[in-house]
Specification:
By secondary structure, the chain is mainly alpha-helical. The chain has one domain. It contains 22 helices and 6 strands. A hairpin with a 2-residue loop joins strand 3 and strand 4. Helix 7 runs antiparallel to helix 11, helix 8 crosses helix 9 and helix 16 packs antiparallel against helix 21. The relative contact order is 0.15.
Length: 497
């Protein structure tokens, strides 16, 4: 048994894709009608099976469809994706996915996730160029000296700052860029790579789970539920404080144990492999001159610009990727690297993150199988029936679990919101609670399962540090159980307030 090894991230995803393929043979096919707003014509478009109907973009049209959402939410762009229309679920002829659909799904997923993949590869190239100068190693060495005796501050600062990004604008895929940058900092502070991964990934996960003003979850879900996004805001702020505090304390306890005795690390058997992966160069011979400092300044500014662009300027992957590409070129000019060496270094840096990029694409392929097999809406339809007749406390727990389960098949927060909220939000009316409670169960359910969801970002995050998924599960499960209990208690209590 000791010789058994947990499968790699890619293998896990292929197994999941195979199981989903089998599901399409047993789960009935079905689909809701959808409604979308066309700004060019100022009309609603209702897509019913193969029939497309144009409707006036008025509140009366929405009322006729039993969609309790103000029409302004569509016309001002708050709801920009097609939503499911309540009460329109139709069973369809089964569309089981074949073996060839299964083997094609990773390729389709890679094509669909091309925007994220190119972002990851360009970031890899940027980091490769900066690493070639030695500036990054010299800066980390100096930072380790500054933090000596105060290393725990690094955990608090990184986790909190990333969580603030998650709660305000859904800082998620962008965190991939920070793993190869910050993990060497944690190693220099005498922690293990798992501490670095936990601070970045869990910071993002907890921030997104307890989103306060995140337009890609809180605002779009509230809009789709027909309520103002500020409804329930104070409760989500409270949850953010509680869950983030629990998470930081948990990470610090593990980090202290590793620092005092490195053999207590869950990845102690990988210490040499990880040390080689993130080994800092001998910086004694490096002249930390103005060129290297300027290169680091440009590097830092690229991330600041990315955050500003995403949160304030409606940027998305094309704009973010362009920023990092331009930054790499500027840094190459600053450090005076030759054109040939720049290309070679950039390509090698991108290649270092190719495995991560492929994991993202393969994970997207699982969603492709679900969509092509027409079973996503079926699962939603039956899930909405489960809660009939429940009392308030049981309802909130059940909804949290339902959303956790659905997030395996629909890992996108915005996609989950527009597909499920028009169906799920009215269920709150039947049990006598506010619709903001359903929005919260959606956020917390997604957020909790996100910690271990293989179709999310965790496998790609672990791949950067070559950490096995089984090690992560051993690390995260105690925290996962604590957060689950806290969440269910808070939701149950809030349903009676």
């Amino acid at each position: 048994m000791k010789n058994l090894k947990f499968p790699s991230a890619q293998t896990i995803l292929f197994i999941i894709a195979g199981l989903v393929t089998l599901l399409t043979w047993f789960v009935p096919a079905g689909k809701y009608d959808t409604l979308s707003y066309n700004a060019a014509t100022d009309k609603f478009t209702r897509l019913s099976l193969d029939e497309e109907i144009s409707l006036a973009a008025t509140q009366a049209s929405l009322d006729d469809l039993n969609i309790k959402i103000p029409v302004e939410k569509f016309t001002n762009g708050d709801i920009y994706k097609p939503i499911n229309i309540p009460g329109t679920y139709n069973k369809l002829d089964a569309k089981p996915q074949s073996f060839f659909d299964f083997v094609k799904s990773p390729v389709k997923g890679i094509i669909e996730a091309a925007d994220i993949i190119f972002l990851v590869l360009i970031i890899g190239g940027l980091i490769g160029v900066l690493n070639a100068s030695g500036a990054f190693d010299a800066a980390i060495t100096k930072l380790a000296v500054v933090l000596k005796g105060r290393e725990s501050l690094l955990i608090v600062l990184v986790t909190t700052l990333v969580a603030l990004g998650g709660t305000t604008f859904g800082f998620a895929e962008e965190t991939i860029a920070f793993f190869p940058i910050l993990i060497p900092v944690f190693l220099a502070a005498k922690y293990d790579a798992l501490v670095g991964v936990a601070c970045i990934f869990l910071g993002s996960a907890i921030g997104s789970m307890c989103s306060t003003i995140n337009p890609f979850s809180t605002i779009i879900a509230s809009d789709a539920a027909g309520i103002n996004w500020t409804t329930g805001l104070y409760g989500r702020i409270f949850m953010l404080f509680v869950c983030l505090s629990i998470t930081i304390i948990y990470i610090m306890r593990y980090a202290k144990r590793v620092k005092n005795d490195p053999s207590k690390s869950l990845i102690y058997d990988q210490r040499e492999q990880i040390a080689q992966l993130f080994t800092l160069k001998d910086t004694t011979h490096i002249n930390f001159n103005w060129r290297l400092k300027l290169a680091l300044f440009v590097f830092t500014c690229s991330f600041i610009l990315m955050i500003i662009g995403v949160s304030m300027l409606d940027w998305w992957f094309v704009e973010m990727t362009t920023v990092f590409l331009i930054s790499a070129i500027i840094i190459g000019i600053i450090i005076q690297i030759s054109e040939t060496d720049f290309i070679d270094t950039f390509v090698k840096g991108a290649g270092d993150l190719l495995g991560v990029a492929l994991i993202i694409g393969i994970a997207r392929g699982v969603t492709v199988l679900m969509t092509d097999g027409l079973i996503s809406d079926t699962l939603l339809y039956y899930a909405s029936d489960v809660t009939t007749g429940m009392n308030k406390g049981v309802f909130t727990s059940a909804m949290t679990m339902i959303y956790s389960g659905l997030s395996f098949f629909i890992p996108s927060s915005s996609g989950m919101a527009v597909l499920t909220m028009p169906i799920m939000a009215p269920l709150a009316d039947t049990v006598g609670i506010g619709r903001e409670i359903v929005v919260n169960t959606y956020q917390y359910g997604l957020g909790l399962f996100y910690l271990i969801n293989p179709t999310g970002l965790i496998l790609a995050s672990l791949a950067v540090a070559k950490i096995n998924f089984s090690k992560w599960l051993k690390f995260i499960m105690p925290l996962f159980i604590v957060l689950l209990i806290v969440t269910l208690i808070v939701l149950a209590v809030s349903s009676y307030l």
